[in-house]
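An instance noted here:
***
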Amino acid sequence: MNTTAGPRLTVRNKVGLVMAGLLGAGDILGPSPAGVAATLLFPQREPGNEIDRFSIEPLGPAVVGVIVTAVALGLATIAGVVLTWTRGNPVGARVIAAARAVSVLITAPIFLVQGLPAWIYALAAALVTATITAVILVLSRPAAPPLPGQATGRGTGAPSGGGAT
Protein backbone atom coordinates (compact mmCIF):
# COMPACT_ATOMS: atom_id res chain seq x y z
CA MET A 1 0.00 0.00 0.00
CA ASN A 2 1.34 3.41 -0.98
CA THR A 3 1.23 5.75 2.01
CA THR A 4 3.10 8.68 0.47
CA ALA A 5 1.07 11.84 0.34
CA GLY A 6 1.13 14.42 -2.41
CA PRO A 7 2.87 17.75 -2.00
CA ARG A 8 2.02 19.61 1.18
CA LEU A 9 -0.24 22.59 0.73
CA THR A 10 1.05 25.99 1.75
CA VAL A 11 -1.01 28.65 3.46
CA ARG A 12 -1.34 30.32 0.05
CA ASN A 13 -2.78 27.16 -1.45
CA LYS A 14 -5.23 26.76 1.43
CA VAL A 15 -6.41 30.38 1.22
CA GLY A 16 -6.92 29.96 -2.54
CA LEU A 17 -8.82 26.72 -2.00
CA VAL A 18 -11.12 28.38 0.54
CA MET A 19 -11.72 31.29 -1.84
CA ALA A 20 -12.40 28.92 -4.74
CA GLY A 21 -14.73 26.86 -2.57
CA LEU A 22 -16.72 29.95 -1.61
CA LEU A 23 -16.93 31.07 -5.24
CA GLY A 24 -18.04 27.59 -6.29
CA ALA A 25 -20.65 27.50 -3.53
CA GLY A 26 -21.87 30.89 -4.70
CA ASP A 27 -22.31 29.51 -8.21
CA ILE A 28 -24.34 26.61 -6.85
CA LEU A 29 -26.44 28.31 -4.19
CA GLY A 30 -27.03 31.82 -5.33
CA PRO A 31 -27.61 33.88 -8.40
CA SER A 32 -24.21 33.56 -9.99
CA PRO A 33 -22.80 36.52 -11.90
CA ALA A 34 -23.06 34.43 -15.06
CA GLY A 35 -26.78 33.92 -14.50
CA VAL A 36 -27.26 37.62 -13.85
CA ALA A 37 -25.31 38.45 -17.01
CA ALA A 38 -27.44 36.07 -19.07
CA THR A 39 -30.65 37.51 -17.63
CA LEU A 40 -29.53 41.02 -18.51
CA LEU A 41 -28.23 40.12 -21.97
CA PHE A 42 -31.27 38.07 -22.97
CA PRO A 43 -34.24 40.03 -21.61
CA GLN A 44 -37.63 38.40 -21.88
CA ARG A 45 -40.02 40.13 -24.26
CA GLU A 46 -43.73 39.81 -23.84
CA PRO A 47 -46.05 41.08 -26.56
CA GLY A 48 -47.41 44.51 -25.68
CA ASN A 49 -45.29 44.90 -22.52
CA GLU A 50 -42.07 46.67 -21.78
CA ILE A 51 -38.90 44.71 -21.29
CA ASP A 52 -38.25 44.20 -17.62
CA ARG A 53 -34.50 43.63 -17.36
CA PHE A 54 -34.71 42.45 -13.78
CA SER A 55 -37.55 39.95 -14.01
CA ILE A 56 -36.54 36.33 -13.85
CA GLU A 57 -39.80 34.82 -15.04
CA PRO A 58 -40.15 33.21 -17.50
CA LEU A 59 -36.57 32.21 -18.12
CA GLY A 60 -35.58 31.65 -21.69
CA PRO A 61 -33.46 28.72 -22.86
CA ALA A 62 -30.29 30.84 -23.10
CA VAL A 63 -30.63 32.00 -19.50
CA VAL A 64 -31.38 28.49 -18.24
CA GLY A 65 -28.37 27.16 -20.17
CA VAL A 66 -26.04 29.71 -18.59
CA ILE A 67 -27.43 29.04 -15.10
CA VAL A 68 -27.03 25.27 -15.54
CA THR A 69 -23.48 25.83 -16.80
CA ALA A 70 -22.71 28.03 -13.78
CA VAL A 71 -24.01 25.35 -11.40
CA ALA A 72 -21.92 22.69 -13.18
CA LEU A 73 -18.84 24.92 -12.90
CA GLY A 74 -19.57 25.41 -9.20
CA LEU A 75 -19.79 21.65 -8.68
CA ALA A 76 -16.54 21.13 -10.60
CA THR A 77 -14.87 23.78 -8.45
CA ILE A 78 -16.04 22.14 -5.22
CA ALA A 79 -14.89 18.72 -6.46
CA GLY A 80 -11.48 20.18 -7.33
CA VAL A 81 -11.20 21.82 -3.90
CA VAL A 82 -11.98 18.54 -2.12
CA LEU A 83 -9.56 16.58 -4.32
CA THR A 84 -6.76 19.09 -3.88
CA TRP A 85 -7.27 19.63 -0.14
CA THR A 86 -7.56 15.97 0.83
CA ARG A 87 -5.01 14.42 -1.52
CA GLY A 88 -2.78 17.28 -2.58
CA ASN A 89 -3.51 16.27 -6.16
CA PRO A 90 -2.45 18.86 -8.76
CA VAL A 91 -5.19 17.64 -11.10
CA GLY A 92 -7.76 19.07 -8.69
CA ALA A 93 -6.00 22.44 -8.81
CA ARG A 94 -6.16 22.39 -12.60
CA VAL A 95 -9.87 21.52 -12.50
CA ILE A 96 -10.42 24.52 -10.23
CA ALA A 97 -8.47 26.80 -12.56
CA ALA A 98 -10.36 25.63 -15.65
CA ALA A 99 -13.79 25.88 -14.01
CA ARG A 100 -13.09 29.34 -12.60
CA ALA A 101 -11.68 30.56 -15.95
CA VAL A 102 -14.85 29.51 -17.77
CA SER A 103 -16.90 31.13 -15.01
CA VAL A 104 -15.09 34.43 -15.59
CA LEU A 105 -15.60 34.12 -19.34
CA ILE A 106 -19.36 33.68 -19.00
CA THR A 107 -19.50 36.51 -16.45
CA ALA A 108 -17.58 38.98 -18.62
CA PRO A 109 -20.55 39.94 -20.85
CA ILE A 110 -22.12 41.77 -17.90
CA PHE A 111 -19.64 44.55 -18.62
CA LEU A 112 -21.19 44.97 -22.09
CA VAL A 113 -24.67 45.84 -20.80
CA GLN A 114 -25.21 49.58 -20.62
CA GLY A 115 -27.37 51.46 -18.16
CA LEU A 116 -27.00 49.23 -15.12
CA PRO A 117 -26.45 50.59 -11.62
CA ALA A 118 -22.80 51.02 -10.72
CA TRP A 119 -23.00 48.48 -7.88
CA ILE A 120 -23.65 45.67 -10.38
CA TYR A 121 -20.45 46.48 -12.26
CA ALA A 122 -18.54 46.81 -8.99
CA LEU A 123 -19.84 43.45 -7.74
CA ALA A 124 -18.98 41.71 -11.01
CA ALA A 125 -15.50 43.27 -11.00
CA ALA A 126 -14.94 42.19 -7.39
CA LEU A 127 -15.98 38.62 -8.18
CA VAL A 128 -13.76 38.47 -11.27
CA THR A 129 -10.84 39.82 -9.20
CA ALA A 130 -11.53 37.31 -6.41
CA THR A 131 -11.65 34.49 -8.96
CA ILE A 132 -8.33 35.48 -10.53
CA THR A 133 -6.75 35.79 -7.07
CA ALA A 134 -8.08 32.37 -6.01
CA VAL A 135 -6.73 30.70 -9.15
CA ILE A 136 -3.30 32.27 -8.68
CA LEU A 137 -3.18 31.13 -5.05
CA VAL A 138 -4.40 27.62 -5.84
CA LEU A 139 -1.84 27.18 -8.61
CA SER A 140 1.09 28.55 -6.60
CA ARG A 141 3.80 25.98 -6.01
CA PRO A 142 3.10 23.81 -2.94
CA ALA A 143 5.79 23.11 -0.37
CA ALA A 144 8.10 20.26 -1.28
CA PRO A 145 7.82 17.21 0.98
CA PRO A 146 10.86 16.61 3.21
CA LEU A 147 13.39 14.13 1.94
CA PRO A 148 13.58 10.79 3.75
CA GLY A 149 15.78 11.08 6.82
CA GLN A 150 15.67 14.88 6.74
CA ALA A 151 14.41 16.52 9.94
CA THR A 152 11.65 19.05 9.59
CA GLY A 153 13.09 21.25 12.34
CA ARG A 154 9.90 21.27 14.37
CA GLY A 155 9.64 19.63 17.73
CA THR A 156 12.80 17.57 17.35
CA GLY A 157 14.32 18.80 20.60
CA ALA A 158 17.59 19.61 18.84
CA PRO A 159 19.67 22.29 20.49
CA SER A 160 19.60 25.68 18.86
CA GLY A 161 23.37 25.67 18.49
CA GLY A 162 23.90 29.35 19.18
CA GLY A 163 23.87 29.60 22.96
CA ALA A 164 26.87 29.84 25.28
CA THR A 165 27.31 27.14 27.85
Remarks:
- Residues 61-87 form the longest helix (27 residues).
- The mean pLDDT is 79.
- The two ends are 48 Å apart (CA to CA).
